[in-house]
Amino acid sequence: MAAGSVITLLAGCASLTGGSDAEDEPIIVGTTSAPSALDPAGAWDGSWELFRNVYQTLLHFPSSSGTPAPDAAKSCAFTDNSSQVYRCELKEGLKFSSGRPLDAEAVKYSIERTIDIAAPLGPAQLLESLDRVETSGDRTVVFHLKKSNATFPLILATPAASLVDPEVYPADKLRESEKVTASGPYELKSYRRDKEAVLVRNTDYQGSAELKNDAVTIRYFQDSDRMMQALEKEEVDLTFRGLTPDHISAVREGDFGNKDVSLHDVVGTEIRYLVFNPGLGAAGDAAVRQAIAQLVDRKALVREVHQRTVEPLYSMVPGGITGHTSAFFDEYGEPNQKKAEELLSAAGVSTPVELTFSYTTERYGSATKAEFEEIQSQLNSTGLFSIEIEHKPTWDEFQSGVKEGEYEVFGRGWFPDFPDADNFIGPFVGGENAVGVPYEDAELTEELLPESRRQSDRAAAGSVLKEAQRILAEDARLIPLWQGRVYIAAHDEIAGIEWTIDSSTIMRVWELHRKASW
What we know:
Organism: Streptomyces chumphonensis
Protein name: Peptide-binding protein
GO molecular function: peptide transmembrane transporter activity
CATH class of the largest domain: Alpha Beta
Domain Solute-binding protein family: 68-433
Family: Belongs to the bacterial solute-binding protein 5 family.
Radius of gyration: 23 Å
């Protein structure tokens, strides 16, 4: 991932021992993305930012690469020609922070419990291609897949495949504790929900990460302005996720209150999109969805709300990912009211169409409010729609509404599980998916996605996934809005920022250090 001269979002803190007292102080990172759970079987969201740093996986994404490499594993490979049998050999002497061994049985247990628990907001769906797990001795694990799936190694590199201690993580339910028993780079020394996570170096860690600090403190903010005030007052050393366009512009243009803070950015694959619930009212009418897709002015959204800190997005697969197309632009072109009128008229839809759009600013940042107000204005100004918008103040409330199917249309964000076009399509379709609204389409789930997963050459899979993107645009059950960059605002003494973001845009806090101490 290429690093630029601008930086704004980051959540972590670190210090190296030795040197002055200031150098020994942990780096404190602010973020608006607090974990929703501490058990990796229960969260498929921004919680992964913490999971990546405290839990270990068999594989990981090395710097600037989307190809998985060994972490807890010594080696891994498919042993057949159809990408259905995947074998891993563990490193010797692995153990959890409890002192108990991390062996093949623990790996098998960790993966199977995530699938068996199938938590409503958990990542079990990512592992749905798995048929069974076998072990041989203490260090050999063999994964048998139901169907060919060349993306399986990438899945094993995500926190969905986090390894946990079987003695303290129940097989049939989520662990209800504010403790983590794992084998990652850091131990979770203390945790206060929605407030703070204190990480300290795991001295027994055996993996790929080379820690450049001994401790990290992550502070969670519900308000972006409060987070930036903490940065200005040097209460935090850097910020990750949650900066508004105003914050980004202020630091970039030298208008921020603390002149020792710099902005950096890296290419990102975060996307924001609208989800339509076809089981509720007008959202179930394809012509209504297509008319909205015809009217949304992404360029105005990027310009007026986000001050060009993001890019317009015309596919669920963002630019920079192999296989990306501009499917929505190909289908609908520039915003056009006449074409939208024709779509509604041909379908016999009476206007104005009434719909409610729901959103939350928690985790997504306060700019989300202005974003939905802009979309509301764009649609209502045509006279074809009468859009109401509603804000859900907390993430739990918003997620509860999604789970219960309460929203006609709502906004979601997506940070990829792994850098592959499949991961911007597969998680959103099927009877149970990451967006919480069923999307049944046999061509997508039974033909195109399985065909793409038989391709070990992921570039070759791109042509198949292009057709999947065309179908998504035609259905318009999901409407992409914009693609982001990863911004990090940091005090100038903080180094290692350019290496913190892996190819799945998750931050690795072990790369951070103070310049004087490295």
